[in-house]
Amino acid sequence: MEKKTITYGMVGGSNQAFIGDVHRKAIALDGRAKLVAGCFSSNPDHNRETGETNHISPDRLYSDYQAMAKTESTRPDKIDFVSITTPNHTHYAIAKEFLLAGINVVCEKPLCFTVEQAEELKKISEEKGLIFAVTYAYTGYTMVKVAREMIADGKIGKIININAEYAQDWLLDEISENEKSSGKKFSFWRMDPEKSGISNCTGDIGTHMENMVHYLTGLKIKRLHATINRFGHALDLNANMIVEYENQINGGYWCSQLAAGHKNGFVVRVFGTEGGIEWMEEFPDYLKFTPRNSATQILSRSSGYITEKAASYGRLPAGHPEGYIIAFANTYKNIISTILKKNAGETPSEGDLDFQTVTDGLNGVKFVHAVIESADNDSKWVTLD
Which of 25, 156, 176, 244 has the smallest count of CB within 10 Å of its CB? Predict the structure, then answer.
């Protein structure tokens, strides 16, 4: 009988963390993958508590990821994939360890610190024939997929301009003359170069703009020039970019963690000769579509007038909000389908393969390095390979 479920392990994502629990809940939504192993924290108490919460057998609760990769790779019932939800500076070493152990990898973004590391991970995964997904999970939203299909079908004509922004305000206290943070804010480690590499803002949220535009349009950035603002800190807190795509069309990007009144203001606008499309992450069930010489339409997820095939990703009736975890769930749905078919010797469909891969992670690393290089050199144009 064809196997309908698979197993997975997790590195990072203790009960005290945020994103790991999002991954677990998203994976559990469809009931096709079971969490059976983990190294959830370097803190023994947190690791044990998280293992108990998730009913992990003691012999599959590991004190370090190296032991987990080695042991799991030799078990007859080894995990089918590992989900890596640790801070940025650990992604490369952990992903490499599991790839070398022959285990499929799903990794949080950004993929790693350097282009050379990303290229190495890509090479290993390809040589070993392993799946390597990177969770740019905003691409999992139904209306993002609908927008992608509309653009591909020519509903906005030939693309002539692109605009994207990602605005947050959670670090605004760090530049205030009247108040300083205690250093205990959620994800405060992102301001530490040892844990975030050369970038904070661009690496954390700016990469989502690069990835989303590519996902929606298929366009690749040819070159860019940028400015960043550190405001006395080690890493960027605000960044502006002008990008030029391979078809010589330009776009403007802005990302900031100092934008008062913005909690997670991720917005993408794509303009063409026959109309424009706008999507906002804080209102993900809706898509603004303006045909040329016509009134703006607000398209609502799961409505009968949406004829695109991507509408099938909707899980709830129109008017019942879907959200962040479902976007992750749609991403994992395709990853799991691909692993199941690969294990069965079948060829995954185009729909199964609709998730971001190590190549997308590599592109994100290149984007970050290009932005910082440009900004640190009087905003010169930097070409991306």
Answer: 176
Output 285-292 pairs: Cβ under 8 A, ≥24 positions apart. Answer: 285/142, 285/143, 285/318, 285/321, 285/322, 286/143, 287/143, 287/146, 287/147, 289/150, 289/155, 289/156, 291/155, 291/156, 292/157
Residue pair 345/86 in contact (Cβ under 8 Å)? The answer is no
CA distance 92 to 350: 28
d(CA 209, CA 78): 36
Residue 24 CB partners (closer than 8 Å, separation 6+): 10, 13, 35, 54
Cα separation of 163 and 252, whole Å? 5
For residues 78 and 333, is the Cβ–Cβ distance under 8 A?
no
Task: Summarize pLDDT for 250-270 with one digit per residue, the tens.
Answer: 999 999 999 999 999 999 999
Report whether pLDDT(185) > 80: no
Category of 322 on φ-ψ map: left (φ > 0), alpha (ψ -120 to 50) or beta: beta
Q: What's the full length of the chain, in residues?
A: 385
Q: List the domain boundaries for the chain.
A: 6-134, 141-319+364-383
Q: Which residue, 128, 96, 98, is CA-closest to 112?
A: 96
Find out whether 167 and 255 touch, Cβ atoms under 8 Å: yes
189 or 141: which leads in pLDDT: 141
Query: What's this model's pTM, rounded to 2 decimal places?
Result: 0.95
Residue 312, pLDDT > 90, answer yes
For the CA atoms of 36, 49, 24, 69, what is the dihedral angle to 10 degrees?
-40
Rounded Cα distance between 214 and 173, Å, is: 33
Burial (CB count within 10 angstroms: exposed 0-12, middle 13-18, buried 19+), residue 138: buried
**Tens digit of pLDDT for each residue in 279-290?**
999 999 999 999
Q: Please name the CATH architecture into which domain 6-134 falls.
A: 3-Layer(aba) Sandwich (3.40)
Q: How far apart are CA 292 and CA 261, in angstroms?
A: 32
Six-digit token pair at 358? 């190590």
